[in-house]
TrEMBL record:
This is (5-formylfuran-3-yl)methyl phosphate synthase. Its EC number is 4.2.3.153. The keyword Lyase applies. Keywords: Lyase, Schiff base. It comes from Methylophilus luteus. It is an enzyme of class 4 (lyase). The keyword Lyase applies. Catalyzes the formation of 4-(hydroxymethyl)-2-furancarboxaldehyde phosphate (4-HFC-P) from two molecules of glyceraldehyde-3-P (GA-3-P). It catalyses: 2 D-glyceraldehyde 3-phosphate = 4-(hydroxymethyl)-2-furancarboxaldehyde phosphate + phosphate + 2 H2O. InterPro entries: 4HFCP_synth.
Length: 236
């Protein structure tokens, strides 16, 4: 199991790398659940990661990026994805408002056919029972998504306040059975690592729980970064 941390600046990217984080998520943290950073800033952050990769070739770092909570058209979606691939982003995260919208299916299929690594982000606020989860995961696996994760729209509540541990565990194991790289995120705090680690996801995603005053738009706290990486490493 690994730690994913969402970052919004070059300095934050360098900070999380130095703390041993290997899943770097580029995201605008000042607003929206999956708001996208602009391309020039994203490119600078990818360059910083690439510099670290050159010095630590065995680190196995993966850079993901969000593309926004929604978009205006299929053409806009294609540009949002391709522009991030062009600067070296490894994985693209798509919100449920996009991947579950039939208007974008053709564009998404085209990228999946090229073996682009896409993660479908499921909204914890709308997740129902095991039957719906099973159907959803089967469809995503059949479409050849690389991964899937649960996240929250509003960060004031942790994912564990919205979804039972039993359903989260079912989600993780079902996703793995379908060969999907699976993560859990959404307002997570250090205190929740133990219970979620027992579910054996591939990664846990953090932002607000590592920030000043538990606010995702505030700076990351270095000490909390080191605490969470050490805590998660204990389960590896």
């Amino acid at each position: 199991m690994q730690v994913l941390v969402s970052v919004s600046s070059v300095a934050e990217a360098q900070m999380v790398l130095s703390a041993g984080v290997r899943l770097i998520d580029l995201k605008e943290t000042a607003y929206g659940a999956l708001a996208a950073l602009d391309i020039p800033l994203s490119a600078a952050m990818v360059a910083a990661v690439d510099s670290y990769r050159q010095q630590h070739p065995q680190a196995g770092i993966i850079v993901s990026a969000t593309i926004g909570d929604d978009c205006s058209s299929a053409e806009a979606l294609s540009e949002l994805i391709q522009s991030r691939l062009d600067i070296g982003v490894d994985v693209i995260k798509l919100p449920q408002t996009i991947w579950a919208n039939a208007a974008y299916t053709a564009v998404i299929k085209a990228f999946l056919a090229q073996r682009v690594k896409l993660i479908a982000v499921l909204s914890a606020d709308h997740l129902s029972g095991t039957a719906a989860v099973s159907t959803m995961l089967q469809d995503l696996a059949s479409a050849r998504y690389w991964g899937v994760m649960i996240d929250t729209i509003q960060k004031s509540q942790a994912v564990t306040a919205l979804i039972s541990l039993d359903l989260l565990g079912f989600f993780v194991q079902s996703a793995k059975a379908h060969g999907l790289y699976v993560g859990l995120a959404g307002g997570l705090q250090l205190a929740q690592v133990d219970s979620l680690a027992d579910l054996s996801p591939d990664y846990l995603g953090f932002r607000s729980g590592l920030c000043l005053n538990q606010r995702r738009e505030q700076p990351l706290i270095k000490e909390k970064l080191h605490l969470v990486t050490a805590k998660v490493s204990a389960f590896c």
